[in-house]
Amino acid sequence: MNFRAQGLKGRSATVIDMTALVDVVFQLLIFFLLTSNYVKQQDAAERAAKVQLELPETQLEADDEPAEDVTIEIDAEGEVYLEGEHLTSMDELEQRIAEQANQHPNTIVLLRGSKDASYGKIAQVIALTRTYRLKVSAVLQSQ
Predict the structure, then answer these.
(1) Interatomic CA distance for residues 85 and 79, integer angstroms
(2) Domain with 113 in it
(3) Fewest CB within 10 A of the end CB: N or C in the chain?
(4) pLDDT per residue as tens, the chain (143 positions)
(5) Taking each helix axis from N to C terminus, what angle separates 90-103 and 119-131, rounded to the nearest 10 degrees?
(6) pTM above 0.90, yes or no
(7) How many structural domains compose the chain?
(8) Per the domain annotation, does 122 fall within a domain?
């Protein structure tokens, strides 16, 4: 007589779903990790030295001279305009940029170029303004 074989055939197999158990274990793990980190930070803050700083009476002031802006435009034919005035050569532009840099060293150059303007001409103007340490803001727009 084989009693085991009959006993197993008569009963259905018991299945335990482990998903809920694993979820609870992970939540407990995360909880303990977060709270232990918080306790470490709180202990470190209590042990930190109490520092008192004396702040100066003076306050930071803005520059006396506000930044000026100069507009340089380059059209599709490669002609250069400084503040709307047509310039005949790059030497003339260099002379005017040098004067502006000497008078107002914190000048911002707004460079506007046509979408059909050659990149070489735009690069020349940028290089020229950067030699005098002026800030350049290039805006390429279609005209």
Answers:
(1) 11
(2) 69-140
(3) N
(4) 555 555 555 667 788 888 889 999 999 999 988 887 776 666 666 666 565 656 666 655 555 566 788 888 988 888 899 988 888 888 999 999 999 889 888 888 888 888 888 888 888 888 898 888 888 887 755 44
(5) 30
(6) no
(7) 1
(8) yes
